[in-house]
Amino acid sequence: MSGVGGRAVIDRAAIERLTRLGGAPLARQMIDLFTEHAAERLDAVRRGVDGPDVKSAERGAHSLKSTAGNLGAERLMEAARQVEAAAAAGDRDRVVALFDPLDAALQDALASLRTIHEELDR
Question: Which CATH number fits domain 4-121: 3.40.50.300, 3.40.710.10, 1.20.120.80, 1.20.120.160?
């Protein structure tokens, strides 16, 4: 699945790797866990954007980055990496500027992962 600029929304090799490790049930479980906790992680970033605790944004972005990497959500992983770095540097203005692209990358990843989940169910 391609995204903006031809960069994959989901690198299918990551899903294939999970499937090789634990079959379709493991891949589905990892997708389910990601989708279940994604909003909570984005909310942590949002708290860093909306409030004085930019470290909350760093923690939320770090968590999104790590889990996105496990599922091959490349654009999301990169967007989260940028937010994490900006928050670690205390650059709240940059975190604010990066929030909408992070949210968009997350929504794209979630849509792609839902499709992949359905394919794994077949």
Answer: 1.20.120.160
